[in-house]
Amino acid sequence: MDTAAQDLRWLDLAFALARRGLGRVWPNPAVGCVIVRNGQPVGRGWTQPGGRPHAEAMALVAAGPAARGATAYVTLEPCAHHGRTPPCATALAKAGIARLVSTIEDPDPRVSGRGFAALRASGVQVDIGHRVPEARAQSAGFLSRIERARPNLTLKLATTLDGRIATAQGESRWISGPQARRMAHLLRVRHDAILVGAGTARADDPRLDVRDLGLGAASPVRVLADGLLTLPPGAKLLRTARQQPLWILHLAGADPARAEAFAAAGATLISCAAGPDGKLDPAGMLATLAARGITRLLCEGGGQLAASLIEAGLVDQLVCVTAGRVIGGDGVPGIAAFGLAHLADAPGFRLVAQRRIGDDLLAEWVAR
Ligand code: AOF
Ligand code: ZN
After folding, report:
1. How far apart are CA 135 and CA 353, in angstroms?
2. Tens digit of pLDDT for each residue in 80-97?
3. Is 364 annotated in the active site?
4. Rounded-to-integer distance, Cα 35 and Cα 100, Å
5. Does the pLDDT value for residue 217 go beyond 70?
6. Closest ligand by atom to 32 CA
7. Is 42 helix (H, G, I), strand (E, B) or coil?
8. What is the C-alpha separation between 129 and 29, in angstroms, rounded?
9. Which residues line ligand 1 (CB under 6 A)?
10. What is the mean pLDDT of residues 18-47?
11. Are 111 and 139 in contact (CB under 8 A)?
């Protein structure tokens, strides 16, 4: 294998390591780092839960003196700012790294090119611009938080062939099969927060955790969009609020006594702006979550919330599970009405993957 191909192979290993951090490192990006000397990996690292230590620091500790003269492969520009620890760029140079192979600049204003520049200034050979689409995709949440002041948003939909999520009587357990439901739990682990609307919370009384995967510690923040604080006090979300964070987004005008009761149960109450229709403004909710550090957000419904997010053009990816059943037009639609007048204005998505999952069809779409 020639050097260029070897480089990409090591960089891909760094991407695989970075993946371990997804959903657990917010507000930071999940970064991976491999240090290679004489064709052998001598140190591997990835961003640790909570966002620190950084990937490069972990890999340098693992490599020890073997880092001298080695090449470092890093999935994002090494940082240049003094946080709780010295900058990774300085640490790499100090450890004697001879060459850096990396992807894109870190858009954090404290970094944005300064990491690469510092390494170059220290005499390190800096070779960047590799695997750019992959780097942007893996850091999509972090890039979105910095560049758009909102999280990257995935909407998960599990519907019948005719796009329904429940019968007219509200029966919804279960539309998709066990394999698809397990996949949905794995999807939660890779996100910082799970968002549901109040209607779904009242109808399904979900816990929104990942307990059946034995990954309790990796459980994401649960976010409930409940403008008027309609959640019943006995809801599982509230009863588990002390074990796993529950943030409730509500309107300023919601009943203060209910707000107090929910806070007393352990929930974090967050007041959000209203849109022109008097309901929670979807863009405002996302901005609020980004300001609190959320980078990767997974919305699991229901139909009203899904419709408002899609209508506002805020859905970056759709993960659709389609089950081989038909409920009919009196069933509850997975995406509620949003009064679209012209087909030309219909939000569009591009199919990027599809496969069978148990007896269901899994399809992934990205916003056009
Ligand atoms: C790296 N390697 O593994 C990560 C980086 O609050 P701090 O000090 O941890 O810094 C957070 C910033 O560091 C974050 O906004 C991003 O620019 C960068 N993240 N950098 O060199 C890493 N996670
Ligand atoms: Zn760093």
Report:
1. 19
2. 999 777 899 999 999 999
3. no
4. 9
5. no
6. 1
7. strand
8. 18
9. 28-29, 31, 47, 51-52, 54-56, 78-79, 83-84, 88, 106, 108, 111
10. 98
11. no
